[in-house]
Amino acid sequence: MNLDWYYMARGPLFKFAVLFFLFGMGYRLFMLLFLGWKKDYAPARGSAIVGIVKAFWHHAWPPEGLREVYKGRLLAVLSGDIFHLAAFTVILFQPAHVKIWGKILGFEWGSLPMPIVDIAAGIALISLIVMAIDHLASPVRHLTSTTMSWLNLFFVFLPLLTGWMTYHHLWLPYQTLLTFHMLAVEWILIWMPLSKMSHFLYFFVSNVIHGVKFGKMGTL
Amino acid sequence: MSPATVMEDKAVKQFIKTVGGEIAAQLEACMRCGVCAEACQFYLTTGNPEYAPVWKMELLRRAYVQNFTVIGKVKTMLGLEKPISKEDIAHWTELDFHACTVCRRCSLACPMGIDVGGLISKVRAGLTAAGSTPPDLLHMKDKQLEVGSPNGATEADWIAWYDWAERERGIEIPRDVKGAETLVVFTMLELGSFRENLVYVARILNAAGVKWTVSPRARDAFNMGKVIGDKKLEKLFAERIINVAKELGVKQVLITECGHGYAALREDMPNIYGGPLPFEIIHITEMMNRLFKQGRIKLRKGVFDNGHRITFHDSCKIQRTGGLFDEPRELLQYLAPNSFVEMNPNREMTICCGGGGGVRAIKDAYDLRMGAFRLKVEQVEKAQADTVVMTCSNCRLQFMDGFKHYQLQKEAVGLVEMVAKALID
Ligand code: SF4
Ligand code: SF4
């Protein structure tokens, strides 16, 4: 691949993607606030704070009744959870990534040995394949799937695959693979605010809303 | 504009009106993973993917995406987004009214924390705004508007119930007493099918020395406005109770065995008014527990330990979203310490009886609700219980229909009845 592309991907494109991501997500957050929030005047039976803690805790340690529900969609729940854990291990602890984080944030943390990161990347890739199978196999998931959901899966798959290929020096020259990898990451940063991939932000907002509501009701 | 267009327009307008930050955040968070389906009794008993909670809120999602998001607007312009059609409205009326009790079990199952059931009630509101409410529910709404109760019970019918209790059971039913502490509000569902409840409630309150009153004007606790998603009507019906309570100067409005009425008054009305109500809204379950703990009523310990196994059904509006989990259990553990067993899952993950949210009133939904009740039968049988106790008359009627449908010799009992029968005079 042309060396210009490599430098473009490392420099201006990366900066653009990060800025696009930050502005895009900022815009979406602003829109949320701008849409208005109603105060809840119903008398509280329980605590909103306890509700918030439980809302998040139930993800880590589902209570018995919830475990029963999750069992019915084990493939979706497990592939989702495992994917996120594995993907964040790669994003946050791959040695080169730690350096990039250090440059952006001004401080670094310890990285994990590459063989561990490599396994995590493999797990993340397999989880994505399982998710794709679930899109076809589960009647509900099949019904709710759209072109966008398939695109999301594909766009997440790309940086993981190219990163993994780069590490293993597979098929193409190292620098070409690295360029592809960086371009795939940059595309995801741009795609995120435009798509459902922004769900990571809403995950927190939605679960806080959930915790406050059901905590106050005395449900949680 | 053709009538059809007006219809879709009304639904979309209602959806747009509904969307605020809270709803937008939840719709944005949904990954369409389908986990919520596994919580829904209608999906679980039919396997129909369209009964998945996420699909039942699809119209609201579409209206949101098409009107509030940049990508959605662009896609709509390019014809890539499907606008809501007349056919969609008819189709989702079946999905959201016949196959949803708004029990909100799905809300507790969603990994993203989305209040799916709550959002489905917003879809119901849009469908109602579009004039697409199931005729059986419309009929009940009209009856409540005309005569006060959704089943057509008039003021004269209510007075006849009070008179019957005085004449046949020899218990005074105080009416419109100014300065009473507590205004007791029943529902036609309860008195129409279990009129002894009037006597039981009276006995419990008298035993505790509560200064209480009923009012033939403060009716019905059941609120068809809430069922169909019409806030104006919900307010109108609730105000029939609130205005009497204000006029009599009570400190408390006691809702008897009705989940819907309790939720409409306690949860919805302060938000419709934009401030707290000037009196407490209390459910009979909490009241009985409170009076018992305060020592104002004395009960015979273990009186229902008679060799039968007793279990408790958590209702959606009183337990799951009302938070009254321990109150009935503490009473049952006292009344039947050796016979009381739990069904599983229970408390906030309770499986809905399948008859709430107006479903029991829709004749065409009979097969669906009986199918859904199968899950409850399995739970009761697993617990090896002969008697199921509950605190909502609508649940109780659904249990009675269900036990008959499945030809089971089991009893559905209201907690009020048990407590009244256990009173030490
Ligand atoms: S479980 Fe939650 S995130 Fe998943 S489809 Fe249902 S509502 Fe959406
Ligand atoms: S609210 Fe209850 S009945 Fe309705 S979709 Fe959710 S789980 Fe099913």
Structure description:
- The complex is a heterodimer of chains A (220) and B (425).
- Chain A has 220 residues and is an all-alpha fold.
- Chain A has helices spanning 3-10, 12-34, 48-60, 64-72, 74-93, 95-105, 114-137, 139-144, 147-168, 174-191, 199-217.
- Chain A starts with a helix and ends with a helix.
- Chain B is built from 22 helices and 8 strands.
- The longest helix of chain B has 18 residues, at 231-248.
- The model of chain B has no long low-confidence stretch (mean pLDDT 95).
- The chains are: A mainly alpha (220), B alpha/beta (425).
- One iron/sulfur cluster binds at residues 39-40, 42, 53, 56, 100-106, 116-117, 120, 352 of chain B.
Task: Name the bound molecules.
Answer: iron/sulfur cluster
The Cα radius of gyration of chain B reads: 22 Å
Elements of chain B, N to C (H/E): HHHHHHHHHHHEHHEHHEHEHEHHEHEHEH
Report the sheet-strand fraction of chain A.
under 5%
Primary descriptors:
heterodimer; A: 0% strand; globular; B: 425 residues; alpha/beta; Fumarate Reductase Iron-sulfur Protein, Chain B, domain 2; Glutathione S-transferase Yfyf (Class Pi), Chain A, domain 2; Rossmann fold; four-stranded parallel β-sheet; 8 strands; binds iron/sulfur cluster
Topology:
The complex is a heterodimer of chains A (220) and B (425).
Chain A: H1 3-10, H2 12-34, H3 48-60, H4 64-72, H5 74-93, H6 95-105, H7 114-137, H8 139-144, H9 147-168, H10 174-191, H11 199-217
Helix pairs in contact in A: 1-2, 1-10, 2-10, 3-11, 5-6, 5-7, 7-9, 9-10
Chain B: H1 3-18, H2 21-29, H3 41-46, H4 53-56, H5 58-68, H6 70-77, H7 86-98, H8 105-109, H9 116-129, H10 135-147, H11 155-169, E1 182-185, H12 188-193, H13 196-208, E2 212-213, H14 224-228, H15 231-248, E3 252-255, H16 259-273, E4 280-283, H17 284-293, E5 310-312, H18 316-320, H19 326-335, E6 340-341, H20 366-382, E7 387-390, H21 393-405, E8 411-414, H22 415-422
Parallel strand pairs in B: 1-2, 1-3, 3-4, 5-6, 5-7, 7-8
Helix pairs in contact in B: 1-9, 5-6, 7-9, 13-22, 15-16, 17-19, 19-22, 20-21
The complex binds iron/sulfur cluster (2 copies).
